[in-house]
Amino acid sequence: MNEPGTASHDQIIASTRHWLEQAVIGLNLCPFAKGVHAKGQIRYALSTARDEETLLADLQRELLALCATPAEEVDTTLLIHPWVLRDFADFVRFLDLVEVVLRTHRLQGVLQVASFHPDYVFADSAADDITNHTNRSPFPTLHLLREASLDRAVAAFPDAATIYERNLQTLRQLGDAGWQALRIGALPPTKE
Q: What CA–CA distance (Å, rounded) separates 78 from 41?
């Protein structure tokens, strides 16, 4: 996992953007990401939270901001939080609070939150299973998505139900060496 202590804001965003471009879009793990990326409709929000309470406040702010912004401007938000929930078990427990926030603000059916983490492990996988990389990001990240946009994307994609299985096959074919070659998580050099 990246150590964010010495990383600049720009490096963290650049590392996350690199992951999105090389893994999510480059490997076609999410066929819906390319369009919003090309249109510049992804917001990269960096939380400086050091505790869960502050992160919850940041999450609420970003959810409400996404609702208040036209989809043509910002269709989706990546809330990157490098300094909190670095332990995957803590991250998973926090996801229950994310659902509470969605219910409290009556956003279920309007927005959903997908989860990505450097140590992501699916419940039915071993920690070293290459397929876990479908949800591994350089830093803990909450992906805020509009349900309406997701519904349109799924309707336009003829085999949406096969994405998960195709992703598993892609990662197995890529293997550990192929994943390492993508340099996911590598921090770009600082600008002088």
A: 11
**∠ Cα 158 160 166 (to 5°):** 115
- In angstroms and rounded to an integer, the radius of gyration of the C-alpha atoms of the chain is 16
β-pair partners for 145:
76, 112
- Within 10 angstroms of residue 19's Cβ, the number of other Cβ atoms is 25
For the full predicted model, state whether its pTM sits above 0.90: yes
C-alpha to C-alpha distances, 151 to 20, 98, 112, 157, nearest whole angstrom: 21, 21, 12, 10
As a whole number of angstroms, the distance between CA 90 and CA 120 comes to 11
Please report, in tens digits, the pLDDT of each residue of the chain (192 residues total): 556 667 899 999 999 999 999 999 999 999 889 999 999 999 999 999 999 999 999 999 999 999 999 999 999 999 999 999 999 999 999 999 999 999 999 999 999 999 999 999 999 899 999 999 999 999 999 999 999 998 888 888 777 778 889 999 999 999 999 999 988 877 766 554
